[in-house]
Amino acid sequence: MAEDLVLDTAIRDWVLIPLSVVMVLIGVLRYFVAKLMRSSQTPDAKMVKEGQVILRARNLRAAANFIPTKAFRARKIYFCNEENGLLFVPKGQAQNPQAQMFSDPNMAMDMMKKNLSMIIPQTLTFAWVNFFFSGFVAAKIPFPLTQRFRSMLQNGIDLSTVDVSYVSSRSWYFLNLFGLRGFFSLILGEENAVDDTQRMMQMGGFGMDPSKGLSAEKDNLDITQHDWALPNFEQRAETVLKKLVS
Amino acid sequence: MVTKTEDNQLNRLENQVDNGGGEAWEYLCLVRKLKLRRSEKVLRHGLSILNDPKKRSSLGPDEWTLYEQVVVAAMDCQHLDVAKDCIKVLQKRFPESKRVGRLEAMLLEAKGLWDEAEKAYTSFLEDNPVDQIIHKRRVAMAKAQGNISGAIERLNKYLEIFMADHDAWRELAELYVSLQMYKQAAFCYEELIISQPTLPLFHLAYADVLYTLGGLENLQTAKKYYASTIDLTGGKNTRALFGICLCTSAISQLTKGKSKEDKDKSQVQSLAVKVLEKDYKQRAPDKLPQVTTALKGLTLSS
Fold it and tell me: Primary place of residence (chain A) (predicted)?
């Protein structure tokens, strides 16, 4: 049955290859536009400090047993006391990330820039593909696939009798959109790759509340028990030395 | 930290480059990556690349990184004219750059024009108050002028923000020790032990500071940290072995006449003495008599 469908070579020359080329060109263009619009933002001192506090508190928790009890207790109070402890966040002060975002126009601006450089070309190319190439069977992959792949490979063709190994033009567009990442990292350099999937994930995780990190770390530190490990080391040193002497 | 493979690679490249075997750029990259101080070699090999137009242009945009590296190395070697020339080239390429501005300020610093350098750094900090490098430069400047307490003040200010920077803690600890402010130094070493609990170096330094502070409790703690150093180094650290002996004798002097609570502790000391004697017998037999008498003196007094 599969042999029945013969793909015109003109489809290859006028649909398959132009689509891929356009996708690559748009990717490159987007990279340069993003580079132009990128604003070098200086990190906020308070944010930096909060990150460092969390790091230090985490270290303290992990290595608590290596310092004397007195030293540990002093640090714990320094971090966790309810008046001016570094990890203590007053209740009212916990800022809503949304509010914070609106209060800082730079942040919103940055987000918008990112979104614009991502969404506009994507919608445009999608509209373009849809308009010119809707319903094309653009390629055939050289191996058979199960029915499950139909929605992935034959987007835009509502025929259930076509063999799944044929790829519609719209699906070819999607395959390119997500599959060209490796190619971009080749031509634009490792870290410059325009990575849509990653960016989408970032969007989801945006707006994490730093004060939440602080209070979580505080809770962790609060329940940390101190058990000084050093007394054991004397015995261990003894065994080490015994081995050396003998 | 420099790992062993990196160290091997570095030595191999260094040998090769010194004997004119090429790969100078790879060597310079490695030095930069590992943040090593090989100023003379960097200056020599970096300049040889920069003076060769063909080699220079083959680097592409990395050329400017190399310029920066050579500038810093040249200032370290007091070749200020070289540094000045390189900065001029960079300035022509990046007229408004802050990174070049920093190099200029460092040149002022190298010339000893402290006030002007200070002014430049302060203006940079106003633009970007969280620039770690500038903060550190200011600390270094205060230290270079012999103003240790000023350096400590600036470091403290820096650590208020970047409190997870263990290199800064280490510097602060050493500054405190140089001013004999041992309690403060002890705090810094605690901080270092927290950040890298398996590094014997900090255990040893902490023990040293505690031993110097004195007092029964501190001595006992110091002894424990000497013991942990021995454990972490596998008994190869002579200083820790001596430390154990000194601590034990000091403790027993303090507790003389009081109830003898723990007899077993002396076992560590006797073992340490044995290991020390064995070590000296192997490595420096001519000094063995001195060591034996010194150690005997310690055990007798206890």
Answer: membrane
Q: Assess whether pLDDT exceeds 90 at residue B178.
A: yes
Residue B220 has pLDDT above 60, yes or no: yes
3-state secondary structure of A140: strand
A157 against B213, higher pLDDT: B213
Is A143 inside a domain boundary?
no
Split into its structural domains, chain B has a count of: 2
More confident residue, B150 or A203: B150
Domain assignment present for B166: no
User: Which chain A residues are Cβ-neighbours of B234 within 8 angstroms?
Assistant: 240
**Cβ of A238 and B271 within 8 Å?**
yes
Please list, in sequence order, all residues whose beta carbon lies within 8 angstroms of the beta carbon of residue B270, skipping any fewer than 6 positions away: none
Chosen domain end from B94, B120, B149: B94
Asked if the Cβ–Cβ distance from A48 to B129 is below 8 Å, we say no
- Give the pLDDT confidence score for residue A167 in this predicted structure: 86
- Over the stretch B187-212, which tens digit does the pLDDT of each residue have? 999 999 999 888 899 999 999 999 99
The rounded distance, in Å, linking the Cα atoms of A154 and A145 is: 12
**In this predicted model, which residue has the larger pLDDT, A67 or A116?**
A67
The C-alpha atoms of residue A62 and residue A73 are separated, in whole angstroms, by: 14
Range of the domain at B272: 198-254+264-302
Amino acid letter for position A229 = A
Q: Which residues of A touch B274 (CB under 8 A)?
A: 241, 245
Q: Within a domain: residue B119?
A: no
A107 lies in some domain: yes
Q: Which two structure tokens, joined as six digits, stand for B26?
A: 């790879």
Question: Residue B39 pLDDT more than 80?
Answer: yes
pLDDT at A193: 47
Residue type for B302, please?
S
Chain A residues with at least one Cβ partner in B under 8 Å: 42-45, 48-49, 52-53, 55-56, 59-60, 62-64, 66-68, 71, 230-231, 233-234, 236-238, 240-245
- The number of folded domains in chain A is 1
Answer yes or no: is A140 within a domain.
Answer: no
In a domain, B207, yes or no: yes
Identify the H or E element spanning A138.
strand A137-140
Residues of chain A neighbouring B244 (CB-CB closer than 8 A): 237
Length of chain A: 246
Q: Under DSSP, is residue A246 helix (H, G, I), strand (E, B) or coil? A: coil
By percentage, how much of chain B surpasses pLDDT 70? 95
Q: Which residues contact B228 (CB under 8 A, 6 or more apart)?
A: A230, A233, A237, B200, B203
